[in-house]
Design goal:
The complex is a heterodimer of chains A (209) and B (186).
Chain A (H helix, E strand, L loop, with lengths): L1 H7 L8 H6 L3 E6 L23 E5 H8 L6 E3 L7 H9 L13 H9 L6 H25 L6 H4 L4 H21 L10 H18 L1
Antiparallel strand pairs in A: 1-2, 1-3
Chain B lengths: L2 H8 L3 E6 L6 E3 L2 E3 L8 E4 H9 L3 E4 L6 H13 L11 H11 L7 H29 L11 H36 L1
Antiparallel strand pairs in B: 1-4, 1-5, 2-3
Helix pairs in contact in B: 2-4, 3-5, 4-5, 5-6
The chains are: A mainly alpha (209), B mainly alpha (186).
Amino acid sequence: MAANFTLDSNPDSYFSLDDILASQEKVPCTFNTQVSNMGYMDQSTTDTNIVSGTKLELPFWLAKSLDRGSRSIINIDTPKNYKEVYRQIFTADPNVVDLHKLGPYFYLFGGKLISLHLPDNDDIASVLLKTFQGRFRRIMDGSQNTLNVDLTSQVSLLDEQERLLFSAGQQGLHDFQKWETRESEKLSTSTMVANHRKRKRFVLSSKSS
Amino acid sequence: MDPSEVEFLAERELVKVIPNFTHDKIYLISGDVGPFSAGLPLPVPLWLAVNLKQRQKCRFVAPDWMDIDVLKEKKQEEADSRFFTPMPSPHYMEITQLLLQWGTDDIPKADEIRTLVKDIWDLRIAKLRSSIDVFVKSGESHAKLNYLTLMEINTVRLFLTKALNHMHQLKSVTSRDTTNSNSQAF
């Protein structure tokens, strides 16, 4: 049931779990002003206040709300994975990159970053799209070609959204395969009924013993 | 859409059978069938053909295209062409599947036909996949493919729609951003 929920959920939705998880990725920030009594957020000092100039990694949702307004409390820097060096790697060969390691929500978080109006916004946006276009063929072939093969090594390189895509492709393949082997016309017990019977038998056997 | 639903739609296609009984016209919601006279071939919907065959009331007549030579030619044509070629029937895969499942004895060289149809299918799916790839790489928002059959579309439907949704998200993020920065510049 839970899998279905994430499959259908729209990442723009307020209740989307993926969206919530993506918005807690960390963004490097520099404080412009002193913030009183928040020193505990910086593990490296024992001060009670955050002094101006402190560099901290804040979750995206916090950074975004602090960044608002003309006299901003913080300055946001581009996260490492979206910087020029990484962008060059993505452009060189998007297929070899382990997007899951670089942030399980690479695309979703990248999309959120763009709303922060960083100086290299345009480059980030184009890299996101290009990376997906470059990786698309591999995801498609991987998901549509292999049947009953261990795919863990292939899937582990994929970003969360790509994984959903991958499982959609697999489902299409499996459905067709089932039809082709005439599996789909056979009547089978629903899993619920099968489990129910087992439970009944279990109860009966435990009573008699 | 499940492949079995596609098969259901395919079952409305007409195929020829030779009944071994005589019966008046039967009137069905989808149209009239018959009259049946023993030994005379007549077209009936696929579902009825399968049903009659299961009760051993008829023999199948293979459709014109279900022939080794025709299929070999079709396969060659499909392999030579860069684009999709028109198929002899919009439901060629389903019809082959059903006719060969129940009527192996009525259709000559059933095994070879099965292999040929599967070969054509594989060729077309490979072609479909490379066209999808070109389409995604080009970043266009629409494309037109001729002569695809329903079953072929159905195998990539879930995957393709999701992929395009994802692309749309990535693109709309970009465009939303440029409109925002424009409005700020004003």
